[in-house]
Design goal:
Mean pLDDT: 90
Oligomer: single chain
CATH class of the largest domain: Alpha Beta
Number of domains: 2
Helix content: 25-40%
CATH topology of the largest domain: TIM Barrel
Largest sheet: 8 strands, mixed
Number of helices: 18
Shape: globular
CATH architecture of the largest domain: Alpha-Beta Barrel
Number of strands: 28
Strand content: 15-25%
């Protein structure tokens, strides 16, 4: 069957222009222009006059687990937004369940209506300081996947190399992984917030080709100058894209060809409320990026970066993954042309039982005694729209400063929420949940704005122990709420719980590895909205994404001050505080 799409302005991403042209599709492949009759007759014609035809969008870096959905379910929600391909690093579930988690993701992804490519997690565990749920994933274990022809076109990269210090010092285990990826022709994804100068050059020369952690224009320009691809991120918690965009067009320097757009971590609520890559395109164009360049970043640039030679543009012989939009300002999707079903391998689908990935909550010896905080403890300072934390201070005028210390000051009790300063310190705790070690630590955090109750969740990057937040960081009056929330989480076999006065206000069970729900996306979205509403009721700002921001407080490869179940961690010095 031959389909003709006529009259649209097509995105010619090769030439960098929009131009009117007709596109012809046969069996999911773009073909040359058809003659008027005979054997080349067109079976169906779509009049696309006044609309724009674009290659389907590619999200170059996303963690499926952050949506709380199965791969197949996430794909179902993304397709109507014009997404045709996502490149997922499943290191979240692998840190909990080992390579059984990767196997499950690969199998479930076969049922997705979009094409899901995977990166082999490079940092399981992230560092030697972690308490995750599995044994280390070594180069020897990775090679089984890289060498298997069944995974050649499905596992296309080495996942983000978060332990950049291991690369710089020439750690043997890391060198083996990098060498393996190069030998099998896999792109190597990066993660190097704040890295610069000689250290960044060592990182790039080791073969790392991308980075999605730039938070300043200077970081972006330095990576582009080294030939790296920069992924401008706009997710539910980290929204660096808007800060980076001006650096692409200022002083008439247009560094577009090695720039991509990605979401990294995107909650199901963000998808249902705002969209996916279509939303990033809207924002990028609204902030001054030429529409054709924005489209290139999520099509041709991404396809070239990851070696996806069969997509990312419109030319004869390429996959007909296309999206028709009303205009290139709002990018409202009119129709999606999806070739994926025609390209899927129609082998029997053998779903790995989810039971194998459940019952991952194993807590020992946890109670209020584990929540004590020294009044001289440093404060983790949280800032909007970025994952980078700082050393905060609690004082009369509440200013954030480097290497500040907690100080006592006049404080309004939580019985009078309106009297509590918005940036009053909350208590934060991480509780080991994989091996029943009994490890737990607590500290103070400033910037969440929680004024009553507590939150507990089994999402805490990247080891995914339990992380909890309590309203009262000063006198511990909400410690009981924190313990209650953790115990409720234990009963659910993982998830997210919001409580106040030892009563559950909202919850989302995530029984698969404590990260993923078995429910349909719409139901998960509704439960997540209830969680968000409950956090707002307890004082958090409506613009703040509580779950993903809280999850990143334990990721000790993002500066500057973080916390694990072993205590506070100084990322700059790469050591625990004494």
């Amino acid at each position: 069957m031959v389909l003709s799409i006529k009259g649209a302005q097509i995105a010619d991403v090769y030439s960098g222009v929009f131009r009117q042209a007709d596109v012809f599709i046969e069996d999911g492949i773009i073909i040359e222009e058809r003659d008027a009759g005979g054997a080349n007759t067109v079976d169906e014609t779509i009049d696309a006059s006044g609309k724009y035809l674009l290659p389907a969008f590619i999200d170059s870096h996303i963690h499926i687990e952050s949506s709380f959905l199965k791969p197949s379910e996430l794909g179902r929600l993304l397709l109507p937004h014009g997404t045709g391909t996502i490149i997922s690093d499943p290191h979240e579930i692998v840190n909990v369940c080992g390579l059984a988690g990767l196997d499950w993701m690969l199998e479930d992804a076969k049922n997705a209506p979009i094409d899901i490519k995977f990166a082999m997690p490079s940092c399981v565990p992230v560092t030697a300081f972690e308490d995750n749920g599995t044994e280390p994933v070594t180069a020897a274990l990775m090679e089984k996947y890289f060498a298997d022809p069944a995974y050649k076109d499905r596992i296309i990269a080495l996942g983000e190399v978060m332990n950049y210090k291991a690369v710089i010092v020439g750690d043997t285990d890391m060198q083996q992984k990098l060498s393996l990826a190069k030998r099998y022709g896999k792109i190597i994804d990066g993660h190097s917030p704040g890295l610069k100068g000689p250290d960044l050059q060592k990182y790039a020369s080791a073969g790392v080709q991308t980075d999605h952690e730039c938070s300043t224009q200077e970081e972006m320009q330095e990576r582009l100058a080294l030939g790296m691809y920069v992924q401008l991120r706009y997710g539910s918690a980290a929204k660096n894209m808007l800060n980076l965009l001006p650096g692409l067009v200022k002083d008439d320097v247009k560094n577009f060809r090695h720039c991509l757009l990605c979401t990294d971590d995107l909650s199901v609520e963000t998808i249902t409320e705002e969209g996916h890559i279509d939303n990033l395109l809207r924002l990028a164009v609204a902030h001054g990026l030429p529409a054709i360049e924005a489209v290139r970043m999520v099509t041709l640039n991404a396809a070239e970066c990851y070696g996806l030679k069969d997509r990312g543009a419109m030319a004869p012989g390429l996959r007909a993954d296309l999206v028709l939009v009303d205009d290139v300002r709002d990018f409202r999707v009119f129709r999606v042309f999806n070739s994926h079903e025609r390209h899927k391998q129609h082998e029997p689908f053998e779903q790995i039982p989810e039971h194998n990935l459940k019952y991952t909550i194993n807590i020992k010896d946890f109670g209020v005694d584990k929540l004590k905080v020294d009044v001289d403890s440093p404060v983790i300072g949280v800032h909007p729209d970025t994952l980078i934390t700082d050393w905060g201070v609690w004082a009369d005028n509440y200013p954030p400063i480097r290497r500040g210390r907690f100080k006592t000051c006049p404080y309004m009790p939580h019985g009078n929420p309106n009297g509590i300063p918005h940036n009053a310190p909350n208590k934060i705790a991480v509780i080991e949940r994989h091996r029943g070690t009994g490890l737990a630590s607590a500290a103070l955090v400033q910037g969440f704005g929680l004024q009553e109750g507590a939150i507990a969740q089994s999402i805490a990057h990247d080891s995914h122990n339990i992380i909890a937040l309590g309203a009262d960081g000063l006198n511990g009056s909400t410690d009981k709420d924190m313990v209650f929330a953790v115990r409720r989480l234990e009963a659910l076999n993982g998830g997210i719980v919001i409580v106040a006065d030892e009563k559950v206000l909202a919850e989302l069970p995530l029984s698969i590895a404590g990260l993923v729900s078995s429910l349909p996306g719409e139901q998960v979205a509704e439960k997540f909205k209830a969680i968000k509403a409950a956090t707002e009721e307890l004082g958090m700002p409506p613009s703040f994404e509580p779950v993903l921001n809280l999850a990143f407080m334990s990721l000790i490869v993002i500066p500057h001050l973080k916390i694990t179940c072993r205590g506070l961690f100084d990322v700059d010095r790469f050591t625990f505080l004494k």
